[in-house]
Every structure is written in structure tokens, then in C-alpha cells.
Amino acid sequence: MTNLLLFFCGKKGTLTDGKINPEDKLQKLLEDPKNHIYIVTARTAENIQKQMPRIKSERFFFVGEHGGVLKRSTAYTSAGPTEFGLYCKNALQKFIDRSIPKDVDFETGATGHLTFGFRLKNLDDKSWCLNLGDLQNAELNELNGYKVEFLKKIDYVSLQPKNLHKGTFVQQLLEELKEEGLKLYVLGMGNDLPDEPFYRAMHNNGFSNTVRVGNDIKLDESVAKHHLKSPQKVMEFLEELTSIQ
To answer: What Pfam families is this protein classified in (predicted)?
Structure first.
């Protein structure tokens, strides 16, 4: 059994609001090879990187609003287990297979709130136009309602679920996580509205290890097993996680 520890950051883009550094606690969690830590922030991933510069592990990965550190240049490979292997891999693999030529190097990245992106690297201007046109006209029904957006003057392609905040997307995600045999633990800070569907879907799927952090929580607290209202409580919870079987 693999433990996937999923953290949503607070409004400052850090865990524990930056008041207490959780780096040592997370490092301890990573000593157990079953634990994988995934941090999502609606700010830039640099905030997390600065808060936890010493953590180096293939099982510790995080993404932010502007792509963050989750990217790799490679010659036609699907996202590996240290990147997106655990997340919507079937939809992402279909997107890669149908849309990116095998001889094209690309980077995979992610933005906040589980949005996936691809940066194609070695195409000339003509190929860019042709390839991006193909992407724009892709049959997205095969990707369960994903939409394609072009950012930064068409040098970046963003693949985002259309129903991201409607609960359907996270329902599908949780079903896939269950199929992978993962034991899922979630800790979320602030940002009530964007994350609400995720918490409700988790609750409806029997994932009771959901944690809310902060005083500005409007969501029905019955959805969460814990409600941590201070950085100290967050640290205590991280310590508690080290005893996961």
C-alpha cells in the first residue's frame, strides 16, 4: 500500500502560513518508502521551494500556479511516477499520444489546482502553428472534457478539466487513485472555494482522512476529520502522520 499525502497550501503559498517550517517533519515522513508527498499551491511553487530547500526525494513533488519544478525535458516519454504517474495518467497519455510527435522534445508541467501543461521544445514556427492547430481541434471528449489553452504566445499548452470546480473531475480522480491502490491523506489550507469539490468528493468516496487548516473555513466541517486552526496544530498533525501503517 502506498500512502499519498496531498497538501493544499494556504493563501501565502506555503504550508503552516510560513510561521513554522515543516521541512523536518516532511523529511521524516519521506523516510518511509511508502509515503509520497504532493503539494499543490495556487501561488508560485518557488514559495514551497524556498520553505523546504533541503528536501531531495523522488517521492516529494509539488506544483504551483506558474508551472513550478514539476517539469522535465525528454524525447517522447509519458510522465513518470515522480511526476504525473499518479494523476489522470490515462487522459494525459492519450493527449501525448495523439498530439505530440514522437520526435519532439517536451516538458511536462503543472499549474495550480491540478491543471496539466506541456511545453513543446524543438518545433520551428511553421510546425508550431500546425501542431497547435491540431491540438486546438483535438477531440477532447476522449479526455473526459479537458480543454486546451495556449499561454505565453503559444509556447505553452495547458490541458485543464472543464469541470474542475464542479466535483465531477475530482470524482474521477479519486476513482483512479483508488484503482492505483493508494491510501490518500489530504491536508488543505484556506482557499475554500477552489478546493471544496475535492473535499466533498473525498468525503463521498469514504476518504475520511481529510484535514482543513485555518480559521477562514466555510465548508461544512463534517467533511473533514480534523480542523487545524494553528500552525502548531499542523505540525502536530504531521508528526501524527509518521505513525501511518
So the answer is: Trehalose_PPase (PF02358)
Only one residue has cell 497547435, namely 132
What is the Cβ-side half-sphere exposure of residue 90, based on CA atoms within 13 angstroms? 10
pLDDT digits (tens, 9 = 90+) for 161-194: 666 555 565 566 666 666 666 666 665 544 444 4
Give the containing element (helix H, strand E) for 147: strand 146-151
CA 124 to chain centre: 31
Q: What is the value of pTM for the model shown?
A: 0.53
In sign, the C-alpha dihedral spanning 100, 102, 104, 105 is positive
Burial category of 165 from C-beta neighbours within 10 Å (exposed 0-12, middle 13-18, buried 19 and up): middle
d(CA 35, CA 48): 19
Distance of alpha carbon 240 from alpha carbon 29, whole angstroms: 10
Domains of the chain: which residue ranges?
2-67+174-241, 73-164
Dump pLDDT digits (tens) for 180-189. 666 666 655 4
- b/e for 194-218, b at 16 or more Cβ within 10 A? bbbbbbbbbbeeebebbbbbbeebe
Sheet holding 210-213, edge to edge: 60-63, 35-40, 2-8, 182-189, 210-213, 226-228
Cell 508550431, residue located: 128
pLDDT in tens, 37-83: 767 665 555 666 677 778 877 677 665 544 333 333 332 233 333 33
123 CB contacts (<8 Å, ≥6 apart)?
A: 104, 131
